[in-house]
Design goal:
Number of strands of chain B: 11
Number of helices of chain B: 0
Radius of gyration of chain A: 13 Å
Largest interface: A-B, 23 and 21 residues
Structural class of chain B: mainly beta
Largest sheet of chain A: 6 strands, mixed
Oligomer: heterodimer
């Protein structure tokens, strides 16, 4: 099974700041990583697929990069609506494990 | 717009069977290339994939839950279902259904909280 290790588990940032979240796979998975945003009381929402493809409707300040085992989600110029928990998920093989999540809080 | 909605009891007794259904609207369960899955979320385990099913009945289960899980599909009702047997308090979680395409989960249902308690 391919495990996903996400860091940090939480961070505090101010509106306008740039935020970087990382995810490491336990083995090489090409570009098979998805990123989800989850707000309290809501289901996760797919933001980026295939490591770097921005989903329709997602703001362009979100970007993803990486391949192999190391991946990043970057939020440029953090906005109030971006405060949420973010999860990576490997889509290389079954079982499709999720990372432990990164909670982005207001500083 | 494709929408999913979970339904089922919010309280299940220990050792009994948890049963949930997911109604799909705005699209057909028979959609080519789409699998349908269940994910649960708890503070202890985070997001945990339970299993996935194709409209033809092909299933994939989490290795850690395989012995207790059964997924089924009812194309006439455009819904799919989850049964989890012999539940314990560790199975208390929010249960989500979702569509899977190329192992991408989207969209998701709103989720339903299931508590295991006597």
């Amino acid at each position: 099974d391919i495990q996903m290790t996400q860091s940090p588990s939480s961070l505090s940032a101010s509106v306008g700041e740039r935020v970087v979240i990382t995810c490491r796979a336990s083995q090489s998975i090409s570009n098979s990583v998805n990123w989800y945003q989850q707000k309290p009381g809501k289901p996760p929402k797919l933001v980026i697929s295939g490591a770097s493809t921005l989903q329709s409707g997602a703001p362009s300040r979100f970007s993803g990069s990486g391949s192999g085992t190391d991946f990043t989600l970057t939020i440029n110029s953090l906005q109030p609506e971006d405060f949420a928990t973010y999860y990576c998920q490997q889509s290389f093989s079954t079982p499709p494990f999720f990372g432990g999540g990164t909670k982005v809080e207001i500083k | 717009q494709l929408q999913l909605q979970e339904s089922g009891p919010g309280l299940v007794k220990p050792s009994e069977t948890l049963s949930l259904s997911c109604a799909v609207s705005g699209g057909a369960l028979r959609s080519s290339g789409s699998y349908w899955g269940w994910v649960r979320q708890s503070p202890e385990k985070g997001l945990e994939w339970i299993g996935s099913i194709y409209y033809s009945g092909i299933t994939y289960y989490s290795p850690s839950l395989r012995s207790r899980v059964t997924l089924s599909v009812d194309t006439s009702k455009n819904q799919f279902s989850l049964k989890l047997r012999s539940v314990t308090a560790a199975d208390t979680a929010i249960y989500y259904c979702a569509r899977l395409q190329v192992l991408q989960f989207e969209p998701w249902g709103q989720g339903t909280l299931v508590t295991v308690s006597s």
